[in-house]
Amino acid sequence: MATLAGGVAVITGAGSGIGEALARLAAKTGMQVVLADVATARIDAVAAQIVADGGTALAVTADVSDPASMDALAATTRDAFGDVRLLVNNAGVETLGFAWELSAEDWARTLGVNIQGVVNGVRAFAPAMIAAGEQAFIANTASVGALGIMPVQTPYIMSKHAVLAFSECLRLEMELKQAPISVSVVLPGPVHTRIFTDSLGAGDAVSQYHRQQMEGMLAANGISSAEAASRILPQVAAGDFWVSTDAEMTRAYAAGRAQALLDLQPPALAPELAASLQAE
Ligand SMILES: NC(=O)c1ccc[n+]([C@@H]2O[C@H](COP(=O)([O-])OP(=O)(O)OC[C@H]3O[C@@H](n4cnc5c(N)ncnc54)[C@H](O)[C@@H]3O)[C@@H](O)[C@H]2O)c1
What we know:
Layout: E1 8-12, H1 17-28, E2 32-37, H2 40-52, E3 56-61, H3 67-81, E4 86-89, E5 95-96, H4 104-132, E6 136-141, H5 154-176, E7 181-187, E8 200-201, H6 205-221, H7 225-237, E9 242-244, H8 247-262, H9 271-278
Parallel strand pairs: 1-2, 1-4, 2-3, 4-6, 5-8, 6-7, 7-9
Bound molecules: nicotinamide-adenine-dinucleotide.
């Protein structure tokens, strides 16, 4: 964490959940923190609290799905604080529904935020980070879902597989260029946040039921956002590629996926999931 102290952090989706907790922890670690989110009132409130606690924070309204908005975020950050040491492309939305029933808008929004948002963050910030020539860090938030499959979460799961593949290739590109930028992919397990409550879609009974189940699961089994941040940030600072909130769960998902691919298993519903969703 000492490598982060004194540097500048930019965290997207910092108005809630994991992003908010990462922003608070980065500030506590001695970073100057830029909080970016579409939820202006929430980032304003969090930034004000960080400053009241003696930290340095700036709230900037930004939509990660909009390249111009991310370029503006990069310019505002540079003007305010200079070079960026840590970029966390954390903003994400959950979307529930059958693939063919979700609206074109919900599809575009999900892929726009979850995939293009990460790409836009890298396009806006990486050139200056590389040019600065200093050790810096880019962390892209996927999910353990990047190593799994799940019906009625298709746009979300698809987007997280994409973030994982993007991050793997980005790590190789940094190596190819011998750039001092460490790339990490964050694969959180359950964290108790508003993500399912705010989810898009959920217009059908099965998805509504699934949303309820997932909200209950996060409330019962999810760790707090603060705990998640305290596990995530040291791994990013250490330069780890695979960053988990629950290393055992990540390994179990990876092993399950690897075995399914090795065996060329066709996708099949786990019996408990089928019973639960088909009961609806
Ligand atoms: N909570 C979990 O269990 C969990 C598990 C795995 C992965 N994740 C991932 O972690 C990340 C954070 O999720 P969370 O659970 O803290 O969710 P959250 O809903 O609490 O916070 C997400 C934040 O992103 C912001 N946001 C949404 N669209 C945006 C946009 N276009 N531009 C900028 N900001 C935008 C929201 O306003 C919100 O403040 C997401 O990428 C999510 O997919 C979460």
